[in-house]
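Self-study notes.
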Amino acid sequence: MTSVRESARPRTPADDENAEAGARLRSVRPAAVGLSSSRLTPSGRAVLGTGVVACAVGWGLGYAEALALGVAALAAVAFALVWTHPTPSVRARREIVPIRVARDETAQGVVVLHNTGTRTLRGMRAEDRVAGVPVFPVDLPPVPPGAEVRARYRLPTDQRGSVEVGPMLLVRGDPLGLARRVRECGSAETLLVRPRTVPLPVLPAGRTHHLEGPTSDTAEDGTLTFHSLREYVLGDDMRRVHWRSSARTGRLMVRRMIDVSLPTTTVVLDTGQDAYRDGAFETAVDVAASVAEAAARSHFPVRLLTGGGLLPLGDGHDPGADHVLDRLSLVSAESRHTLSDALDVLERLREGDTLVVVTGGELPLPGERLGRMRGRFDRMLVVRVGVSAAATTALGVPQLTVDLLDDLVPAWRREAMR
C-alpha cells in the first residue's frame, strides 16, 4: 500500500472540530511486549527446505552443483536470521486522525516511529488490522538516529459504525524477505464513522410547556424548571442543592434544571428493515441525523427514539450535536422492531413541540396513529425515503419524500417557510 511520508513536526491545536477531536486522540502506547524471536517467512521456509534437500542430494550422490546450491540457500537463510536478530531501539505508536468522521469523509492512521538508537533503521514496516482486514501494510522510510518519521494511510469510512483499528504490528524484515521480527504495539482503537448530514434550519414551533405551571420574568429561574437530580460537581450553584436527597444518599445532590421555553424536537427513526429497499436505510439515518443535529447545534432539546426505545443522549438536557451523531452512528436496521413499536414508545412520552418521523417507502404508513400524534405536537412532519408507488399513503400531516440526502435540503426549507 502506498503511504504518505512526512518529516517530524510539532502538532498544534486548530480551531475546527476535527482538530479538537484530534487533540483527544487515543494514541497507541509504546508496547511493553518484547520483540519475538526471528521467524522465517513462507519464502524463508521454502528456501530452507530447498537448501536441506539440495545439500543431502549433493552430498549423497556426489553432485557438486547441488551441494553448492544447497549451501547457498542455507547461507541466505542464516543471513536473514542474523539480519533480523538485533533488537532495534525504537518507539512506535499509531494515531487516528480524526477519531470521529462522517461517512465517506477522510480518516487516516498515522504511524509515528522514533529511533532511540545510534544506527539508522531500515526495512521497517507497520502492519495494522483494520475493519476485519488481517493485514494493512504500511512501508516505513529509513529512520536516522534520534529522528522521528511518520507514515499515513487511509482508513475505510464507507460504512457507518465502529471501525476497529489494531493492534498494530511493527515488523523488521531482511532484504531477501526470508525472515522477520514482529513486535505488537498497543491495543485496538476505535474509529467512529458517523452518518452524513446536511445543514437544515430548525422548524419553527410556537408552543411551550412547563411542568410546574406558568412562569414569569420575575421568577427566580425564569423559564427553568426541575428535570432530575444528579451528583454535585465543582462549580454548581449551591442554591440548587437538594438537601433531603443528599441526606438520604450520603452524597451532595443538586437539581438539574431545563429551560422549558425552548422547543423540543423529537425524531422518530423507523429501524424496521422491511420498510427500506437496498441502501435506503442509510439515507434514513442520514436524514434523522441532519434533523437532530440542526436542533442540537441551536442548543434546543432533542429526543431520539426507535422501535427499541428512547436513545440515551447523555446526562444533560442539551446533549450537543456530538452525542446525537455518536448515538446514531450505531443504530441498525432489524426485523423485530417496526415503526409501530416506535410509536408505542412515543405514546408513553410527554408531548413536545416538533415531531419528525423518518421512515422508508416500502410499507404503508399507520395513518390513523400518526394522525392522533399530530394533536400532541405543535408541528409534525413525516419524511419518507425511497417511496414506491404501492406504499403511497395519504395522511393528514405534511410529508416529504426523498431518494438521496441532498434531496432533503430544498424540501425541508420549503416546509420551514410554511
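Second protein, same conventions, sequence then structure:
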Amino acid sequence: MQKSRREFLKNATKTSVAVAGVGVVLAGCSKNTPNENVVQGKSPKEEILYQKSKQWDLYYSVAK
C-alpha cells in the first residue's frame, strides 16, 4: 500500500513539473504584441507634480 502511494506521488510530481515546463515554454513563444488595453493619449499638457506654495517651501526647508 505504501509503495503504491509513493509511486503515485512520484508520477504526479513528474507530471506537474512537465506541465509547468510546457506552460513556461508556451508563454515564452507567444507573440510580443503591444497591450491593447493600454490607453496612450496625445495630450499636449505637461505633468504638474506640485504647485509652489508656502507649505511646500516649509516642507522642503525642513526636509533638507
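Instructor comment on the second fold: The chain has a mean pLDDT of 80.
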